[in-house]
Amino acid sequence: MEVGPFVALGALVAGVLVGERAGIGAANVALVTGAAALGAAWFTRARVRVAIVGLALALLGVAVMGRAIDGRHSTLQPAIDGRASVTVSGEVTRDPTGSTYASSALVRVVLPRGGHRTLLVAASGSDAMVLRVLEAGDRVVLRGRLGPLRGGGFDDRARWEHSVGRLDQTELLALGSPRGLPAIADAARARVLRGMRDLAPTRRALTAGFLLGDTRDVPADVAAEYRDSGLSHLLAVSGENVAFVLALAGPLLRRLRLGARTAAALAVIIVFAVMTRCEPSVLRASMMAAIALLASFAGRPVSTARVLAYAIIVLLIVDPFLVHSVGFALSCAASAGIAFGQGPIARRIPAPGVVRDPLAVSLAAQLGVMPVLLAAFGSFPLITPVTNLLAAPAAETVGVYGLFASVVAFYVPALGPLLQQPTALLVGWISAVARAGAAVPMQLDTRGVLGVCALAAAGASVACLRARRAVSEPAPR
Fold it and tell me: For the residues 195-223, what does the mean pLDDT come to?
């Protein structure tokens, strides 16, 4: 396996973390030096090139992170510090979240002297009910009171999504429709959601999560069951969803020539990413799909592991704040676990392929995300491999069939009740698995992991000692 892309990725991540504390002065110097080193790498030998590219990406990591942090400063800062009452116009960039009477969203507002900055917009009471019906891409005029971001919760997440402050006591003064790409994506999204109208409310909300990553209407107790059983990742869009969409578009794409087919497939990926709100897991999956398509078009297909490394490098250069996204870390860790662990695990499972392959994928993904889950949440449900083995095939079927049924049901409403019956049954099965898995109180915490590692190390030591004794003892005559 070629290690160059992973050396470059590690150097970039290290540079991003250093750049968080280095400041804008160091960022400008690092940008010039890193760009020069990256250009010089093309004229060096292969072995030296890896080291130079690693150094260049480390410097670029310092630069992009320093500049991103410096970008938080704006002409809004005095008004934020003074908690001024303002009227702003902008575009919703993240669907509202929260309860019926306390909602928040991210809005990219237009600055008085030009440019844009993102605010965390919060409302309560009847204003929250109005805010909650907005969607990403909507153009709005808002009135409220500015203030600094608070610590914890949504504010911390908003801070790493480039938010520079809060707008509280928000009132919606005017609303306009999306334009351009968001308008196309929202229209497609609305067709899929309306095609689910024949499903029961909870199953409709879960299907929206499976297909579009929209979990706003999933009841809290159901979301807790999915989380405690290790199935919450099924409600986040992943690489499989991107593959399902490309598979559905396949009959049309295959009619085109190679260049047009590649361009059309890239357009499908972009529209789907905007439909699913460009969440971190969506960005990772979409970027991997785009790189794989371009590599195939160039006649130079690359391994999944290298595609993952390239995708993370591109995304971190574009948005270094992703390094603080738990969702991005989980998505990358699961993909890395599958890329590196699926084959070795499958070779060691003595079972038929129909059981061995899905189980290997599940185990590899869970091993990948375990360190992230332990670091972020402090525990890991041991029942996860079992629940994923039982639920993943149904979730994959929902990803393909549910999308097809919802689109057809939108255009032919009379077929909706019939077409959505299989969707309802599949979602019901997944929910039953989640409910059963959540009832198993087996959680692995950090101390448990250390204990398992210690036992594994002791077992490996005993096995090595026995092997040495077997080799050293003379064979009987």
Answer: 92
